[in-house]
Amino acid sequence: MLVRDVVSWTGLISGYVKVGLSSEATALFLEMDVRPNVATFVTMIVACGRSRNLTFGKGIHGLVFKCGFSARPAVCNSLIDMYVDCERLSDARRLFSELDEKDIVSWTSMISGLVHSKFPKEALALFSDMQLSGVKPDKIILTSVLSACASLGALDCGRWVHKYIDGCGIRRDVHVGTAMIDMYAKCGSIDMAMEIFNQKAQKSVCTWNALLGGLAMHGHGAAAIKEFERMTETGSSPNEVTYLAILTACCHAGLVSEGRRYFHQMVAQCDNVKPGLEHYGCMVDLLCKAGLLGEAQELIRNMPVRPDVLIWGALLSACRDTGNFKLDQDILDRLDHFEAQDAGVYILLSNMYAANKRWDEVKRIRKLMKEKGLRKAPGSSVVEVDQKHHEFFVGDTSHSRFEDMREVLNFFGHHCSAEENLS
Length: 423
Description:
Layout: H1 6-18, H2 22-31, H3 38-50, H4 54-66, H5 73-85, H6 89-97, H7 104-116, H8 120-133, H9 139-152, H10 155-167, H11 174-186, H12 190-199, H13 205-217, H14 221-233, H15 240-253, H16 256-269, H17 277-289, H18 293-301, H19 309-322, H20 329-336, H21 343-355, H22 359-372, E1 380-385, E2 388-393, H23 402-422
Antiparallel strand pairs: 1-2
Helix pairs in contact: 1-2, 1-3, 2-3, 3-4, 3-5, 4-5, 5-6, 5-7, 6-7, 7-8, 7-9, 8-9, 9-10, 9-11, 11-12, 11-13, 12-13, 13-14, 13-15, 14-15, 15-16, 15-17, 16-17, 17-18, 17-19, 18-19, 19-21, 21-22
Protein name: Pentatricopeptide repeat-containing protein
PPR repeats: 5-35, 103-137, 204-238, 239-269, 342-376
Keywords: Repeat
């Protein structure tokens, strides 16, 4: 082309971004000999987000400000997405709060980003702010809100979203339907999840995975196997997530032979799906819970990938629970050189050495933990009361109604003890 204007450059850059060639798109942007327009900047911001190139993304943000485009909604929304993709939620929140006018895209970007980044409580709080602002949610943002409800076990909020979807006549497409099934299943309402699942004529692999994952979570092993077989009979092909769900179901229900069968079935497929760390972790956990420590160690030895913290944790927990502290030397050697920033495995290993009265090893492990600055993270749980979520940590006394809760717990504790004495 003898003359290349901003439209020509932006069109070519956009093409590279759409097919995932972000580096080539960046190189083209740097070659531009004309002034970029809003479409150019939006395209480059998207490229930076997808490639997690925060440094260049900040540079584009600065150029946007210098060129006077920082107030454009399309640019601001793209920047929020970019910061979320780069895991800079503080920058995304700051930019979002500075917007004079927030449209549905702005709210969707921020709420979806919080859900994706594992901040469901903050996502629901922001959703409440959106409703107060008068912006009506669409099915995209409602899908994200359902995911947040699933993560928190916020059944009341999830039911409200369900009623809103039906009341507004929003079509339950694959995404909305799957999110509803996932929410009800994870909130413990399996019957409702099954009802919605059976109402859907079209079921994607994600829809099946949501149901199987919910059944697995709540220990319905036989029901999960039945639905898995029904899935394969309908012609749907299981993926890695499907196999993880069915292996988890077998693990929770103690179905060892079924778990072996599905794991070997997955391995035999070779090209279609391949077992990853999570699948090996489920099998090790299943074998350990069944007391088959020898078979679990053999599986770990033959793994094509390095065992992670969950696999070692399952093995050591089984040793502790069964009182069997005899591990093969090569397994101990691999454990000894295990590098992790999780204190749980080191504590289990230390306890195992202590049970064998190997006090020098106990001191060495404790010293190693101190050098790494590792401390066991406290356990926590979330309770929903009147659509508000209360998180409690082990030994936590900071809640405003702690004394009231303690009195109630003490009352029921004494009451139960009295009943036991009478019986």
